[in-house]
Every structure is written in C-alpha cells, then in structure tokens.
Amino acid sequence: MGRVDKSGFGVSSDKPYSWVQSAVVLIRSVQRRGVRRTIERIRRELAFPTTVPGRVVRPLAREIVALVRRPQADAYVSGDAVIRSMAIDRDVLVAFYDLAVQPVTYDFAWFLCLADLERVEKGLTRLVVLFVPGGCAGVREEAEDYDRAVGLAERRARVQRMLVPMTELIPRCEAILLDQRESALVVAARAGGLYPRRYDPAFPLVHNSADLNNAARGQEVRRLVAPTSALESVEAWITEYCSGARIVTITLRECAFEPGRNSDIQAWAKLSVELEALGYQPVFVRDTEKVGTSSPLPIAEAIFHDGASRRVDLRMALYARAEFNLSVNNGPAALQWLGAGVRYATFKMHTPVAAGTAYGAMRSRGFAEGSDLHFAGLCERWIWEPDRIEVLRPVVAAMIAAVESEARPCNMQNASNRASSD
Description:
Blueprint: H1 18-33, H2 35-47, H3 52-75, H4 81-87, E1 92-98, H5 108-122, E2 126-132, H6 144-149, H7 152-166, E3 173-177, H8 181-190, E4 193-195, H9 209-215, H10 228-241, E5 246-251, H11 265-277, E6 280-285, E7 303-304, H12 306-310, H13 312-321, E8 324-328, H14 333-337, E9 344-347, H15 359-364, E10 380-382, H16 389-404, H17 412-421
Parallel strand pairs: 1-2, 1-4, 2-3, 5-6, 5-8, 6-7, 8-9, 9-10
C-alpha cells in the first residue's frame, strides 16, 4: 500500500495505483469536508504539492492558469505608477519574493544573491525586488513551535526592519512592497526579466540555497556589499569605542526557537578574554530582541555594538570591517557567508537536537556533512563541531596566523579536526 500523506489528501507513493487511491481520498474528502473546503485543499495542493499526483499535475495546471490569466493581466490597470513604469522597463530584472511561501529571515540573503546573478546573466543593469504579500496577514503561516518563538506581529515587523533593508546590500537594487497579489500578476505578465523564471503568484516558489552553492563554480556569488554610509559610521564607532583597535566580531545566538543551537556563552566569554590578550578587541553582536536586556556574559568589560543588532546595514558594515567574524550557525551569519571579502568561521553547523540543522535538513539545502561552501576562500570556513572552547581555540589561532601573514593558508578545518581528535 502507498503511504497516505500527512496532509490528509492524496497518496505520496510512486506506484501507479496511487492515482486510484487519490481519487478515492478525494471522494471521501468531499463527503467529510464539503465541496468548498475540498476545493480549497485542492488549490493548496496544486500551489504547494505534497503528493505524487499534485507534483505531476502542478506543471499542467500552471500553464492553464497562465493562459487564462494573461488576458486579465493585460487588462488589469494598477493604481501604482511605479509598478506600471517598472513593468515596461526592459533594463530591469524583477525578483518576486513571495511571502506566501518564503520565510521572513536572513535566508533572504541567498535569494538576493541568486536574483542578482540572474540579472548579470541577462545583462540587465538594475534589480527590483517585489515583496508579494502572503495570506497570513501579509506573511506565510508558520509551524506552531516557530510561531510561539517568533509571533505573527514580529514576522510582519521584520519585513520592514530586516528584509527591505537587506536589498540595500545589493548595488543597483530597490525594493517595492505590493499591497495585493494582483500587482505581481501584472508585472509577471509584462516584465522582460523575471526571477524566479516564469514566476506566477498562483504557483509561488521557495528558493533553495543549494542553487547558489551549485552556481558558485566559476562565478562570483558573494554579492552583498555594505553601503558607504554604514562603513563610515562603523569606522567612527570603532575609533570612539575601540580606540581604533583590530576588531573581531562574535555574534551570539540567544533565540527561543531551537535553543539547542544557541551560543555557548561561557566558551565565547573565555575566548574573548584570550583575544584581548592577543591584541584583538572582541565586539559582541546580540540578537535584535535581546538588545537592551542584561548582558549574558560573565565579564564586565564586554563591548556590544547594539546598532549592528538593530540595523542590517551596520551589521554588514561591521562584519566587513572586522579582521574576522565568529559565530554559531544562525541567521545573521548569512551576511558573513555572502558578503564580499568577509572573513568568518561559523561553528556548530550541525546540531542533532535541532531540526533546522540536523544532517538531513542540511543535505536538503545542498550542504554535505563536514563541507564548506563551494565558493569559500581562505579564512572562510564552516566548523561542524560544537562551539566548545577546545574547538574554538585552534580555529581562531589558525585564523589569526593567516590574517597576520598573507602567505600562510588559513587551514581552520584541519585545526578543527585536530581539536576534535584531542
């Protein structure tokens, strides 16, 4: 027998008779749910297929909907002059970040880099990111455990506080928030360059970081650059608060969601003292929600950059200005991984107690166990071991040696392996 999908509609099996079973399930669904709820369930299945029939039918349904909707799109008159002018601008790549399916997190950085690579490939000069509203108060519906940690109001606020400012990290990029999904239909029907290609708001797509990791071979994919004004602000801050010292950032994860992924505060506190003794000034960057709360560190003289916690442009500038950046696997680390010329070591890439960083989840995103990013250079490493002090020390020592001597390679992965075997 095929395995009935947990969604309660259809059968997730590759066997031919799954179609027959799906028909039976459909009839029973009509009897149990009623026609209206069943139609809604079919609509969701075509948009976000969870079954074999859904995945097979989706491409055909997409083509049919596109043919039906094209005359509507041509006749639709948007009240937004910016949308109208943008739709006929052939020098623009329009990237649709559809909040019906896309997360309101730093994963947006991967999408931005993918879209900008598409712009370069097509030979276009500008990138416009359209945020298409989702069905849950403008964003997507999340799982209960995530919703408890990051509620709906916070996710909505992050669109303006996090996602829109991130577009400023891509040169020649602007952001537009749409009020209705129909506006996306207009642009998709008329624009010259689209990302994702052949986007349709009836069939939104979720980007995969594996696409960027695979595209990295032979291409410059690290597209994020701090604005000049943010760099100048950070430089002035370093002069005032760090006396112009060489800085190393330590980004702390202190999130209520999947707390097993959080930073080992004691280990990072010890490391910061050792860094100071070596002539480096540690600068801590906390989660945005933790700014203004009491310090978690057991040391009195720690320096925090609260502005970088609150503002994406200052965070990017601080990472770019630092000698190198340290953190566990968390959202803001994406700015380090995808920032042009940013040195980093990210620890705790795998956390078995957290679904988001379990090996299966990492593989589904294109990251093999123990690997670095395909486009990682010197002093750009993922450390899969936990952020224990005995793991941190040799990695940071290798980083310092490489920073202070350009001729020596930054072999932090080997340093980490040695720490694990000690």
